[in-house]
Amino acid sequence: MNKNGLRAFAFHAEDETSHRVAMALRGSRSSLPAFSTTQAVGLRNLDSETAARLHLNQTLASEELPQFTAPPVNRIPCEFKILGTETLPLTATKTVKFRQTYNKIPIYGSLITIEMDNGNELLAVNSSLGEPVNVDSIARISSAEALNKVRILAGYGLEPLETTPRLCYYFDPAVDRWRLIYVIEDVYQRDTQKPPRVEHMPLLMDYLIDAHNGDLVAQLPRTPSITVSPPTASPASQEDEALDGLDKPRKFWCVLVGGQKILENIDLNVHTYDFQFQDLNSGLLPGNYVTNPPDPWAKAGVSAHANAEVVATFLRDILRRNGIDNRGEPLISSINCVSVNDSPDGREWRNAAWVGTQMVYGQRRVGGEFRSYAVGLDVVAHEIFHGVTDRTARLQYAGESGALNESYSDIFGIIISNYFDKRDLSAWNWEMGEDLEGTGIPIRDLSNPTKYGQPGHMRDYLNLPITPDGDWGGVHYNSGIHNLAAYNIIIAKDEQGAYLFNTESLAALFYLALTQYLSRTSQFSDSRRAIELAARTLFRNDANPIRNAKLQAIARAFDVVGISTSRQDQQIVDRSISSIDAIAKAESWVSWVAPPIVGKRYLVYVHGISQHQQHYSDNWWQALQPYVGEVFKDGNLGDTRLEVLWSDLVKRLTVSNAVDTTHTEQPRVTSQIGVIDAVDTRKKEQLHQEIVNILEDRQRQELAANISGGLQIPLAMQFRWIQSDLEMAIDDFLIYMLNDQIRQRIIDRFTNIVKPLLSNHNTIDIISHSWGTVVAYEGLRELEANSNSSLQGRVSNFFTVGSALSIGPVREFLRSENQDGHRPSMVNKWINLNAKGDHIGGMLQDRFEITQEHLWLNPTGCPQNWPGLLCAHLSYFNKDNTIVNQDIFAKYILA
């Protein structure tokens, strides 16, 4: 069962393992009364809903599918209400969707999709079903009482709220039980209080009210609905050309009304308005049409309109979809939008969002002028696909479902922007929002989520509160996991090195999964199952080897990021910021897969606190490799060369008190709360100042020595001791020093890589840098204490480079058993390096059992007269630094 309380099931007749079952189902129809009454008519000639219900009833009752059941609850039988039928041109199939009910009360998020071919033969069943046990089906408060509570919560005062509550069974993951609730959807917010500082402001909310006691169970973000004001005169279409917000010439369609051109595309039903910096809470959307005259066209309007035309064309021609709702709904954009509560001056609003029936685009000053958030095709496609999701799966915008919502918009943003830029798949741009470069907003990279602070695996999934400050459960963070799975699918190749999928089939694959198989509370595992089902239908006419290769590639893509078809199988850690004990407990059962054993000598890099991503050490390796021959063979990352990346454990768990969440982009962390609250704030501030004072004293001493030698140092350098980014690194590292649970999780990251190597009789060399030297030292000491002689390998050389172990307060806050400075027993040689000007590092000889020290090294690549702290701190890994890489690192490794 998923954490949404629903039990998943999937079946596809084209699956090799299910083909026998499909044949058995067909063979048993003659004995079933329901089917026998249709024989005269023929299955092919039945209407889709009748045929789908026959298939549903048969599969539920069949002994061939014992795992597909919907048993009675409290003696109340399960029933299924038809939601609708859809013909899919992309696959020449039909789907009929059902909602599960008990006593006519639906189960929130439940869904059964029956897919049939043109002859009404069963192709696939996909379901998410619940059993609302231990919950009374009789409401104790009226719908009017529930509505009155929402009216107050939404700020309506005495004003009536025109909406209808609906009873549902709802599985509440917060208390792990079923509830009977009223669902009140799409409630426009009229609260006049200034909301918390967030970039994505939900103007609509869904409210879930307990039908027994009237408690607010959940408040989930939605968006507002608006009406369109069409031109009053009969328009004539014409094509025009103008510069967009990036000063690129764009062609687009408009209409001519009474001598004035209006941004309306009649054929694609695309409309673009100017909201003229009004407040989104004014209820006046969409504004007035963008027109010409005045001449020239507004660049923001051209961007929004031309990009929306591109997306509308993709929907029509590639996905065979008639607009956002597949019924020709107008595609509406408004530029120059502002949410006053989120704007510093009433005009600049750094956001772009889908708001129920349209897109709204804010703007930011760049070079003294406003740049609209509509300039990026990928951004526009991202927002429009939130509309498609809203009209189909309606994935709730919270937690894992919300991350899935974000991910599908990212996927189509990338697919559409690359498709219309006519990029070869090998040259695709994987970044979201790159056209907004210079605006300062964060972006994501589907090919490397960790590059911008997102997790890339389920074991790093971040559980955040369902609040604005918690990014509605981390929807912009955790989407990176599903994004990476999608990237793995897109780039999959066959044995000959050719791409398995083209752009059209990729778009169809993700589109069918989203629109046909997902529902409100779907999780990542549901998406995997949906994509695999869609693939079996979409590629059912391919030759067996080709189809199998595609299906295997999809499975591998999800396996790599830890998304299985069952939630229980996923390597997920509950990293709730509300409970450090829960974090430590959850971490303990994550299984670790040892690095592949491909040789007998390994090189392990341990990075510092800065936000690094995989392959960060590539340049370090390239600087060292010419001098070590084939000691580490090819030195491929993941084979004989490994990295310990750990700063993300600190940065993702110290969540911003002002999460900057543009709807398109991931949040920026600007100040830290959550786990940092578990740290003694006074002690943190005291230690911060002590470390800063030590580093400044070291810099003063070096400065004095240089000046006494006749060196002239600019005044600005004399008085600017510590750089701001270094102070931020100190603050981050203090979390390691002062929080035992975080420290243990980081040390586990180190030991999980090093222990398997030592347990298999291998020799390793460790190069640790900066604050990472502390992690490596304490990790080795823990391995020593817990090994019980099981570690038969050895650390030939333990290099500490620019080591923070040299800072007095750092040593004082090592674990008590590590403060003696003892060299770990498995370490043969401990070599400490420090460059002139690198004040983070220093001498360790008088504090630790060092084999050899190399101090006052020249910081290659830095100015000779005044190297600068950060330049010196990174100079060891400069490719021109032969003193370090050839004469020190290589010398000891080859000894």
Helix count from the secondary structure assignment? 22
User: How far is the first residue's CA from the last residue's CA?
Assistant: 56 Å
Proportion of strand residues: 15-25%
Classify the secondary structure makeup into a structural class. Answer: alpha+beta
| Major sheet size, sense and barrel closure | 7 strands, mixed
Uncertain parts: 192-200, 224-234, 567-599, 652-677, 708-722
Helix content percent band: 25-40%
- Cα radius of gyration in angstroms: 30 Å
Strand segment tally: 29
Q: Estimate the mean pLDDT confidence.
A: 83
Shape by Cα distribution: globular
What does this entry show, briefly?
With 895 residues, this protein is of the alpha+beta class. The protein has 22 helices and 29 strands. The relative contact order is 0.06.
Please provide a written account of the structure:
The protein has 895 residues and is of the alpha+beta class. The chain is globular, with a radius of gyration of 30 Å. The two termini are 56 Å apart. The longest helix is centred in the C-terminal third of the chain and has 28 residues, at 681-708.
